Amino acid sequence: MTPPTAPPTAAPAARTGLKLPNLSTLGPLIALLVACIFFATQSDRFLTLGTFSLILQQASFIGVIAIAQTLIILTAGIDLSCGMIMALASMVIGKLAVEQGVPIPLAILAGFAVGAFVGWLNGLLITKWKLPPFIVTLGMYSIVFAAVKIYSKATSVPMPADGLTFLAQRFTVFGTPFTYGSLLMVALFFATWLYLNFTAPGRHIYALGNNPEAVRLSGIPQNRLLLSVYTFAGVLYGVAALLLLERIGGASPEAGTTENLESITAVVIGGTSLFGGRGNVMGTLIGVLIVGVFRSGLTFMGLDSVYQNLITGILIILAVATDQFSRRKA
Question: What is the pTM of this model?
Answer without folding.
Answer: 0.89
